[in-house]
């Protein structure tokens, strides 16, 4: 499981989304999220079966949860051919509630041990399952000691930037779709005594897919998520590799109460406060301006909380293979974001600023 877990973290870095416009290519013509943003539909939840035979195919569903009653969850699962064999799946899921058994499901799953359906949409890994449509989903976790059920309702529609893809003809693609605000209502049951605890909350869900080989993965990702998921503020930027022009692209969204009040997927981005750290340089800030001149803003890190080598702890043989192509690290900061819209409205949020590096 450790190798598969490392891979799906590395190749599915986009927790929220990416960019727009076409990139000036050097070796290949990379097409990056063209067109205007679109609302997601149920088809945007479905497995990308046409890509499932590719060597570097990986697809996941990730849920950032903010729950009441001292309940916490970190849910990620999906399908992958990387370091697990064609047609496999994986789960990297934990759930805890005070006074209830701890749920942990971190494993690779053979093709015969999971199932999928397009209509109605469902993914069933036995211990973790997801079903429903673009407006309402049911997420279930279960083992021999505990069972968890959550109803997720989209307060605002799922969102994708134009095509939703970075495409490199002949090499592969990355696709990202985000549901920026979902309400959560659920319960957890202790199977030993029948005790049940109800909880509510909010969720940001992403559906991400990649078939790009490691050497063509973007070398840098930057993103910010505000702490208040009832009024989420989200930012994503990606730097393409030098063979695709080496440029930065990005987007942001602001949800206030029950609607998207600001957002753009056509940003000009400028790294600020760049500081060296070991073999890499990290942008502690990012200034951005909407290409249409409707908004501008900035993300600023305050404290570096944690630095993680993504390949540490996995089997040495697997790590040695991966390090020939990538040096994946994650840097987590406390940070703040501010956006000025139309010269009259300003939105501010404190939260988590994260930098993912794929190569030095």
Which class best fits the helix and strand makeup? mainly beta
Largest sheet: 13 strands, antiparallel
Helix-strand topology string: HEEEEEEEEEEEEEEEEEEEEEEHEE
In terms of DSSP E residues, the strand content is over 45%
Number of separate structural domains: 1
Helix content: under 10%
Question: Whole-number average pLDDT?
Answer: 87
CATH H-level superfamily: AttH-like domain
Uncertain segments are 1-27
Overall 3D geometry?
globular
Count every beta strand, where a strand is a DSSP E run of 2 or more residues. 24
End-to-end CA span = 26 Å
Question: How would you describe this structure to a colleague?
Answer:
This protein has 360 residues and is mostly beta strands. It has one domain: AttH-like fold (Beta Barrel), CATH 2.40.370.10. The chain has two helices and 24 strands. It has helices at residues 2-11, 316-323; strands at 31-32, 38-39, 58-67, 71-80, 88-97, 103-109, 115-117, 121-124, 128-132, 136-142, 146-154, 159-160, 165-168, 172-190, 196-210, 220-226, 233-239, 248-256, 259-264, 267-277, 280-290, 295-309, 329-341, 345-357. The strands form three sheets. Strands 1, 3, 4, 5, 6, 7, 8, 9, 10, 11, 13, 14 and 15 form a 13-stranded antiparallel beta sheet that branches. β8 (121-124) and β9 form a beta hairpin. It is globular and about 55 Å long. Mean pLDDT is 87; it is low at 1-27.
Element layout with pairings:
Blueprint: H1 2-11, E1 31-32, E2 38-39, E3 58-67, E4 71-80, E5 88-97, E6 103-109, E7 115-117, E8 121-124, E9 128-132, E10 136-142, E11 146-154, E12 159-160, E13 165-168, E14 172-190, E15 196-210, E16 220-226, E17 233-239, E18 248-256, E19 259-264, E20 267-277, E21 280-290, E22 295-309, H2 316-323, E23 329-341, E24 345-357
Antiparallel strand pairs: 1-13, 2-12, 3-4, 3-15, 4-5, 5-6, 7-8, 8-9, 9-10, 10-11, 11-14, 13-14, 14-15, 16-17, 16-24, 17-18, 18-19, 20-21, 21-22, 22-23, 23-24
